[in-house]
Amino acid sequence: MSKIENRTRIVTLRELGWKWDAIVAQMSKEYNFSITTRSCMSLMKKYKESGTVDDQARSGRPKSLTQREERLLCRSMRVDRRKNAREVVGELQERCGKKVCKRTVLNILRKYGLRRRVAVRRPLLTKRMRRDRLKWAKDHYKWTVDKWKGVIFSDEKIFRIGSNARGVYVTRLPSEKYNDACIQRTVKHGLQVHVWGVIGWNGVGELKLVNGNLSAAAYQESVINDLAETGRAVVNRNRRFTFQQDNAPAHTAGSTKHFLTTIDVRPLSWSGNSPDINPIENAWSVVAKAADYNVTNKDQLFESVRRAWNQISVQYIRKLYHSMPRRLREVIRHHGGSTHY
Length: 341
Description:
Elements (H helix, E strand, L loop, with lengths): L2 H13 L4 H12 L5 H14 L16 H13 L5 H12 L5 H10 L3 E4 L1 E4 L3 H13 L5 H4 L2 E11 L7 E4 L10 E4 L4 E10 L2 E2 L3 E3 L5 H8 L3 H8 L7 E3 L4 H4 L1 H9 L3 E3 L11 H11 L7 H13 L3 H9 L1 H10 L8
């Protein structure tokens, strides 16, 4: 029995002269519908006022903005992704004469699938850099995972204590996370340690502490001096490996190229500003989360970072190697732009 039918029975019985107590008893006994005398009286009052037992439309609080104004708000936020809700409040008051609160703005954005999120940090990419990245990805697109197994990836990383730089919020759809307009670009420049490491199919190599800015000579003498042995350890004893390094001056110096030749190590050509292609960046992220920063000096910080580095599993490293074909596909799909890796 529907709710409307039960209401109609109550009204009918009352108009036939039944008393409220009798109506309540009848509805409970015959129709298994429980209702109080007060509710019956309220129902009858509403029926006399409206002439129906149907639910009436509730007026509620009127909307702050019309649909057109809501679309205008969303368009404004997407034109300038870094504009915050308070700025939009002032803009709406100036253009539409409407005064709304910050919460209303955020609710409207959510209604249209937009959220305020911290912009993803990615290196600044010029048109030339994008072209170089796209070409590099296409040149290595057909490499299989088995071929990538013969590559060792290297990189430097600075770990700091007390770095509390706040992210920049942007307005975007869930699918727009890596759009150029939604990315916070970074440019290279407390207590910190500068380290260098390599990864290979068989795990991580020895983590080395870097002191100061590396010259080509210092890079050869204190960082890659044992590269031949390290590379064979993390790849395969019986397999010749290819060495990846970025395009820092110490890495591309003529003396470094000659040094690699003398130890029979093949360098891998590399596209600049491409940390998202290098799987070692994911390993650094694991270390950054796992390291203990409750230390008081540089030596303790380095030991904490080294412990976290050595705890990275071989299985995790191999997952990163399996991701290489996907990374290149995504670079090509984004026409050389930033990817989610």
